[in-house]
Design goal:
The chain is an alpha/beta fold and 351 residues long. It has 12 helices and 10 strands. The strands form 2 sheets. Strands 1-10-9-8-7-6-4 form a 7-stranded parallel sheet. It has a 3-stranded mixed sheet with strand order 2-3-5. Helix 1 (29-39) packs parallel to helix 3 (86-105) and helix 4 (120-126) crosses helix 5. The radius of gyration is 20 Å and the shape is globular.
Length: 351
Amino acid sequence: MTENGAKGKDFPWELGSATGIGSMPGTDPAEAARTVVDELPDFPFLPELPARGPGADLIGRTAALLIDMPVETVPAGWRIAERPGRVMRTAQSMLSSDLDTMEEQLAGFEGPLKVSLAGPWTLAAGIELPRTLNPALSDVGAVNDLTASLAEATTSFVADVAKRVPGARLILQLDEPALTAVVNGEIPTASGLSRIAAPDQAVISDRLGTVLAAAHGYTVVHCCASSPAFQIIMAARPDAISFDLSLVRREDGDAIAEIADTGAGIFAGAVRTILPRNTKDDPPAQTARNILRFWRALGMNPSQAAHQVVVTPACGLAGASPTRAVEALAHSREAARIVPELAEETTGDDE
């Protein structure tokens, strides 16, 4: 069995922790913040409410922070613009309001707090160039400019949150839902008739790493797409990785084991975001067992899972009902609480 290098590592979270991914249902930031703080008091996150419309979604919220790179809405989504427009001002106003609400809800808070931005490759795949209308991904110079702008914005954003919640230990999550498609050369051109060639893998890691380093703190990369590019992500040197546990393939095991063995944090998306009709969740204890079964299959010491693994929903909760969102966060919290107990029992059995 692998001797985990994470033993004794100073993780930002406590033993048996859970958190959310980012997006939540609804349009009321105060209600979303209360839900997060009520269900995840030890490891809250800044909610994202895409149901409010353009500018409240992952790309729009992040674009509102970009430095010297205004973006506007177009029928296909987003496009680099000459000057900031109404939608960007709205996006900035919504984010400012969200941060005000978070500051109020977390007054006096001490502990881990997670905030999220879109990663550079998801932005490059989701924002058009002004003339060709192709994604910025198609232009090396545009990708470089976007990365530099996002890195500067990241530093400023994290500093702002730190001032608002001075007792928090901040964790920056870069969301990269499009990364797998970028790596596989699956992002379409404006015409839809062809695909944009995949960038060199070293370049993908380097640009991602540039933004991660700009946070000057603990970082995690989240990708809940099928077959995340684990090795490319880890070459960017995040402190943790977040993924949907149900989408992990057998062939991904070695890459995840290598990640875990370095002591990187593992945000295990183990709770379904939406339940099919007439079905129920597994009990939280079963979710905890599933996590430990996965951990043991990697060849890792079960006792370390309670320190290293953070339990989360499988992905964002924007598509869930408000009731289901509460259930998923509560389930994650309870499953995380049980993991240390079961890990200790399992370790005792091994001995």
